[in-house]
Q: What sequence folds into this?
């Protein structure tokens, strides 16, 4: 991981085959500042899994300035919880062997490295060895260690002699950093990653491309003859992500087969990937079917956008995990046919949405989806009616900062929805441009990282203005 956490290899053998009975939990620091930093960390996690060091959960990734040796690239740091039956020194041997197999060369002390793996904690044990100190001596002083660790175990004690002092306590005691740290969520190498806690970040515009005859506002519009011109207009309008859907989720619409959905979506993905002007944009597939998501990823999609957050297809989370792609999990109840009736929130709208999203995030992580690959969507119009959508926009910042959800990026999709029509008195979805503009501005003010829109040119201008006002 970080420049301070390197462990010197030793010629002594520590018994790589040495194991203890039963699985034990350990916490590993992850870091990189050379090459594709996220790819390096993800490769290291795969290597751990392949060696029976099972990665159970991961923190977000945090981008940080270098320390000590300042003339080097910014670091990406994180942490993971692993399950292993290796003894601490044997675990260290395996981690160092992974670093070596990935081509790490230690040329400068605390200098650049493509991958850095260090043991932070191992159960509640203390280790005092010439090669290994557990708990790691740098934990209490390093924000780039404490922040990811606090996401995993905020209420765990580091020092057994001070069981009352928890990871979160150490983090709270650190002096404010000159530049607040932000999480980093990758989308595609050619697209700026999401920095959900960076005040000056730009809001990404996601263009909706519904390749369906029955979508509520744009069904049947995007035909093969018009599609190329539409795509080019959206790129000129500022879209950096295209969200392609082949199955309408509007209430009362018929469900098509997975094959028909794929037949609608895949040619569009291939078209976007074939155009020189759009080769660098990100592509999202809007589907709740695992088979369609898998086919879309193979065709070139970068994001799997599931309105059900894995609830409508039991294979979705495992498919997402295998793909290694970024995913969007939306809050919804029931299915598109029943969701409008499931709009009771007796414990409060925001607390309930937060609790139910926390459950979906936990299920995603348990399936092997990395936390740094998760985007959330509050689900405007899905199991929420009328005033509930306005309340959600009003209190969106509260939802973003809910304990356990902090640092995750958010997508907001309000475009042309019925609650806008009810407020403005505009019956036709295509005419709800001005009402949509107000909701988009509200979403940016509340902290949205991505806005999902139909009217890309107009909303691109709204986003630029809203960013200029609130993202300064």
A:
């Amino acid at each position: 991981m970080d420049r301070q956490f390197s462990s010197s290899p030793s010629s002594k053998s520590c018994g790589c085959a040495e194991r203890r009975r039963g699985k034990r939990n350990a916490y590993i620091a992850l870091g990189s500042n050379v090459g594709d930093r996220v790819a390096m960390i993800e490769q290291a996690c795969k290597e751990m899994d392949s060696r029976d060091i099972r990665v159970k959960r991961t923190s977000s990734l945090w981008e940080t300035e270098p320390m000590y040796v300042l003339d080097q690239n910014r670091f990406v740091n994180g942490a993971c919880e692993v399950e292993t039956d290796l003894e601490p020194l044997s675990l260290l041997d395996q981690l160092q062997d992974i670093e070596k197999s990935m081509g790490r060369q230690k040329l400068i002390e605390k200098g650049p490295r493509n991958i850095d793996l260090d043991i932070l904690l191992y159960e509640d044990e203390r280790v005092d060895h010439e090669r290994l100190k557990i708990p790691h001596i740098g934990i209490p002083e390093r924000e780039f260690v404490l922040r990811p660790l606090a996401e995993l175990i905020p209420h765990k004690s580091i020092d057994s002699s001070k069981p009352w002092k928890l990871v979160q306590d150490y983090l709270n005691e650190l002096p404010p950093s000159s530049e607040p740290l932000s999480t980093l969520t990758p989308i595609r190498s050619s697209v700026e990653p999401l920095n959900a806690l960076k005040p000056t970040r730009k809001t990404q515009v996601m263009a909706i491309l519904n390749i369906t005859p029955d979508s509520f506002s744009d069904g049947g519009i995007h035909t093969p003859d018009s599609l190329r011109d539409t795509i080019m207009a959206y790129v000129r309008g500022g879209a950096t992500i295209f969200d392609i859907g082949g199955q309408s989720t509007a209430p009362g619409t018929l469900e098509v087969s997975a094959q028909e959905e794929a037949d609608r979506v895949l040619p569009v993905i291939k078209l976007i990937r074939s155009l020189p002007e759009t080769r660098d944009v990100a592509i999202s597939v809007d589907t709740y079917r695992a088979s369609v998501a898998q086919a879309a990823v193979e065709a070139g999609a970068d994001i799997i956008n599931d309105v059900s957050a894995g609830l409508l297809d039991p294979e979705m989370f495992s498919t997402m995990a295998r793909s290694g792609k970024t995913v969007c999990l939306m809050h919804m109840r029931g299915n598109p046919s029943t969701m409008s009736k499931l709009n009771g929130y007796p414990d409060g709208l925001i607390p309930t949405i937060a609790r139910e999203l926390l459950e979906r995030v936990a299920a995603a992580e348990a399936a092997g989806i990395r936390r740094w690959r998760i985007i959330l969507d509050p689900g405007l119009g899905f199991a929420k009616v009328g005033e509930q959508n306005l309340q959600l926009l009003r209190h969106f910042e509260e939802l973003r900062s809910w304990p356990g959800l902090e640092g995750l990026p958010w997508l907001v999709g309000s475009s042309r929805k019925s609650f806008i029509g009810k407020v403005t008195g505009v019956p036709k979805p295509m005419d709800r441009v001005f009402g949509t503009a107000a909701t988009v501005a509200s979403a940016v003010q509340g902290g949205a990282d991505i806005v999902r829109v139909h009217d890309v040119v107009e909303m691109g201008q709204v986003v630029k203005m809203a960013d200029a006002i609130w993202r300064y």
Remarks:
- The mean pLDDT is 91.
- The longest helix spans residues 349-366.
